[in-house]
Description:
The chain is mainly alpha-helical. It has two helices and no strands. 89% of the residues lie in helices and 0% in strands. The protein is rod-shaped, with a radius of gyration of 41 Å. The model has no long low-confidence stretch (mean pLDDT 82).
Amino acid sequence: MQTRNKILDDVSQLFTNAVGVAQGAKEEAETAMKGWMDRWLADRNLVTREEFDAVRAMAEKARAENAALEARIAALESAAKPKAAAKPRARAGKAGGAKKTAK
């Protein structure tokens, strides 16, 4: 007595091959769809997440540097104000003295 039927073996082999073909077709369809989506997104000038994060980090760094420079300018201006106020008074006194000697 035969334990395996030839017809059932053939049907089983057919289904196994069909599943393999279906898996290959699925992978090919996924690859084609991914390529199509990549081209479509590239045509729309959209950026990737990595590019966005890089530009965002650059902007944050620029803002931090800008704030540091603003603080430095404010400190330099506040330090320069007393010196600037003292210089015109000294000049005014010298100019006034020069006028008195000219008379």
